[in-house]
Amino acid sequence: MLLSIIKYGLLLWLSYVVWQVLRRFFGGSTLHNIPGPPSESLLAGNLARLHGADSWDFHKSLEEDFNGVVKIHGLIGDVQLYVFDPAALHSILVKDQELYEESTIFLSLTGLLFGKGILSTTGNEHRRHRKILMPAFSTRNLRSMLPVLYEVTNRLRDGLIKPHLQAGPRELDMYSMLSRTSLEFVGRAGIGYSFDSLADGEEPVDQYALSLKSLTPSIHKLAVFLPFLPLVSKVGPASFRRFVLGLIPSKTLDALCRIVSIMDSKATFLVQDKNRSIRRGDGDIVENSNDIMSLLLKSNRTAAEEMKFMDDELVAQTSMIIHAGTDTTSSALNRIVHVLALHPDVQDKLRTEILATKEPMEHDELVGLPYLDGVVRETLRLYPPITAMTRTVTHDCILPLSTPITGIDGRRMETIPVPKGCEITIAISAANHNKAVWGDDALEFKPQRWLNGRAQGVTIRMSGVYGNTMTFVGGGRSCIGFKFVQLELKVVLSVLLRCYRFSVVNDHIRWKLGSPAAPSVDNRPFLPIVVERLNV
Asked: Where does heme bind (predicted)?
């Protein structure tokens, strides 16, 4: 039987390769005239540079040497597009979004890892998931979550940072501290569960927390196999796929399977535990809770059948929210602390604004601080946690351009015919750095460019949901938690800058590209920041 399974798998793999080769060489010819960097590999084209952890220079060259749409060489001669033209992005994300679906690899991966949730569904099913989840991220609910965010941040301040500063300023690994805090934010506000005491010397021992920390590195180790996920995910029932995976002698794959199993079991327990509280008459426990899961359970009780989440969907949403929210918040928090350490004048000005307010601030006062808002917006513009994402073209279509490009043959191109199946990279960083939109100072960190949530001097409209940037993208698959991320950043800064000053001695910190970007020293996750306690 094992031999038959192996033969069947090899046949499927060979068929997939042949189909891809034929499609790449006989389809997509309209794209070959678009300028782009030369292919660097017969097999992988430019993909190693495009997705490499140290490929910032490559992305910068795509931003500066090309004009809005760039041809990228993919696997086995495939032609893909790297897009940061405003009109093209509006078409992809908003106007014609039904023609540009989430990458099949991403959909397959999130479906296999978490189940059926907002990240792994498309079309009407995705719209249903989004419609049910959106109210949980309303301004009203964010206000109710604010005390929890302050409580967690105070534990970061007093439990993780303060004990190290008894003898004066000290260089601390803020990456570890802020990553733990990010998970606790999402745990408390997302599902009403505490993963970490945030106490010095007490490393988190929660199995879910440890599994979540290992999830992304495990996926990266198996990255070479990701292109085959759409095919594998359709082979037989889930039990058969698990059986086949169990036959593959891979320690990394075994570890990933254990991680997914732990996360699924924990999420299932949390959902069932809250449901049991409701059934046995402890409804007040949920009724008085403001975490996202409790809000969903409360709405489930009165929602129409077609608008209710089933238990397996609640489990999937739980894991997806925690995974996505933790990584992006951690990246943003680490980046903003690093940026302020590099810009002491900005940090001092921001501290002055914060010290002029009471502690803690109410929601409207906190989000209304103009310089704090400018610092957060400018950091997220210049350094978005997710630098790029992909879409797959579902039907032949025409991509409009804000600025015409000149083809390799010298022909002026005002639109681009894009064939079905083409992979498109939404170049988030490149769009946020586009000098045609942001001006010649687009690559400079200037919080003062923002006034009342708007960037001064910007006349070209971008389709993003946040401050004319593409940081949280736009359209029907934009990030539903972008206001929550902003609030987390503002709470942390409003608390920490009152009592601590951040600086760097030797800026040997390097940021690694990824989903999301992360700080690194000597190729290990690390953010060494000198922290000084202030007498205020």
From this structure: 479
